[in-house]
Amino acid sequence: MSSKAKDEPKLPADGIIRDVATGKSYRRGKFLGKGGFARVYELTCVASNQTFAGKIVPKTLLQKLHQREKMKQEIAIHKSLNHKHVLKFHCNFEDAENVYIVLEVCRKRTLMELHRRRKTVTEPEARYFMHQMCDALKYLHESRVVHRDLKLGNLLLNDDLELKIADFGLATLIEKNGDRKMQVDYFGLNTSTIL
């Protein structure tokens, strides 16, 4: 089996993805993007017609114990978070072929794509996005979570152009204050003074 075939999720031919534990079904829509391990598709709940982003990870990429543990950690961390500037986690489930993570959909894509399209961001826009990012990071760090992969491609924009931090695949949870990974310095930054 080629590496490329191994990376592609095997999806139901009828386009319906089923969570057998809850009985919910999702209709797979358009392809939204891909990351190191996952493909992301638009998913629409058949019962409610609500649209989500579905992060789909083939189990063929989770064969080693550390890969499975990392996936469990990503889900546990993301599931525990609730902040207006952190991408909303709705649910997760799996079938014989894939692990599915159902998330808030952000149709305005990423700050990376915005920058590529426009080539520039105005100073007021930069302040607007930085304020939201700092607000989210303050929440994450107070929740003892360090993201460890902040980049324009992991900063999503919803329909209202509100920033959402996404992709907790490299995130870690700090167990205690003395943990070396907790060395996060805010440089005295007060996010209320940015705007």
From TrEMBL:
Residues binding ATP, per UniProt: 55
GO molecular function, one term: ATP binding
Pfam families (alphabetical): Pkinase
Keyword RNA-binding: no
Residues covered by the Protein kinase domain: 26-195
GO biological process: mitotic spindle organization
Claim: Kinase is one of the keywords in the record: yes
Keywords, comma-separated and alphabetical: ATP-binding, Kinase, Nucleotide-binding, Serine/threonine-protein kinase, Transferase
SUPFAM superfamilies found in the cross-reference section: Protein kinase-like (PK-like) (SSF56112)
Stated family: Belongs to the protein kinase superfamily.
This protein's name: Protein kinase domain-containing protein
Source organism of the structure: Notodromas monacha
